[in-house]
């Protein structure tokens, strides 16, 4: 079992930046691919970014491509999402998720509680 805890969200001016963190518990962090999803009020939860268990490969939603960078620190058991040039449409609750390496992102095994990101525009 893994426990994920997001942090780093907040109110940001349009065009600003945030760095979200997701701290994972346990010694099995490296067995999971990690990802970020977001959900705005009245909308479905959607994919934002993901990083492989090794950290060597990443993927991004078209809506954030070029503005976000996902990375992971195995030593700290933490996944990050650097978000730059934030837009009003980025306002959402951001969730960290983990999935067993090789199983895909159809149904992540673990979810964090979420952290709110709000563009002040």
Query: What is the terminal separation in angstroms?
Result: 39 Å
Rg calc? 13 Å
Shape: globular
Stretches with pLDDT under 50, minimum 5 residues: none
Structure classification: mainly beta
- Strand proportion, as a percent range, falls in over 45%
**Average pLDDT score:** 94
Compressed to H and E, one letter per element, the order equals EEEEEEEEEEE
The main sheet comes to: 7 strands, mixed
Number of helices: 0
State the helical fraction.
Answer: under 10%
Number of strands: 11
Short description:
The chain has strands at residues 4-7, 10-12, 18-24, 32-39, 46-51, 58-60, 68-73, 78-83, 92-100, 110-111, 115-119. With 121 residues, it is mostly beta strands.
What would you say this structure looks like, in words?
The protein contains no helices and 11 strands. The chain has 121 residues and is an all-beta fold. The strands form 2 sheets. Strands 2, 4, 5, 6, 9, 10 and 11 form a 7-stranded mixed sheet that branches. Strands 1-3-8-7 form a 4-stranded antiparallel sheet, with no helix packed on it.
